[in-house]
Amino acid sequence: MASSYSRRRTPSPLPGLFVFLVSAGSLGFAFYAQYVQKFLPCILCLYQRVPYYSATGLAIISLLLIRQPGLSRGMIYLCGLAFAIGAGIAFYHVGVQELWWDGPEMCGGLTSGASNVADLKAQLLAQPIVRCDKIEWKLFGITMPTVNLFFSIVMAVFCFLAPRSSMMRTTGQN
């Protein structure tokens, strides 16, 4: 019995789709907290969103390049790098909140384009000051930057491991 067995490698869009949904969902939650729940973000909170913007875009590119497995996998690895950077930003923010170190000068401050003292005073009175070391939200004693730290680490690990195991699945044909 001679059978011809050939293997063909076909790309799977699941890692890119998962990263896209998680990133877009995380940004959606951040916007919900900001605009619906009225939790004003500090500058470090805004910085923590940048990796999610990046991962969302890279995941879309990964899905568009699904027929080019090497490039598609590369985009997911870049998502992992974005999440690793996000974990670093989140760790820094946790340290600021826990008073382990000082935050950047912009924390709680206002970058002004005022041309005179009256304009600066008007800007200062109109803008709420959001300090980076102020804890705005907690769940079971866990702050949002702490949640983001662990979430970013998990997503980074997923993005570094997923391309090896699920970007390519082998299908046999008889």
TrEMBL record:
Topology of the protein relative to the lipid bilayer: Multi-pass membrane protein
One cellular-component annotation, GO: membrane
A Pfam family this chain is assigned to: DsbB
Top-level lineage group: Bacteria
Transmembrane region(s): 12-35, 50-67, 74-94, 139-161
Chief site of localization: membrane
Keywords, comma-separated and alphabetical: Membrane, Transmembrane, Transmembrane helix
GO biological process, one term: protein folding
Matches recorded under InterPro entries: DiS_bond_form_DsbB/BdbC, DsbB-like_sf
GO molecular function: protein-disulfide reductase activity
Location of the protein in the cell: Membrane
Protein name per UniProt: Disulfide bond formation protein B
Organism: Thalassospira marina
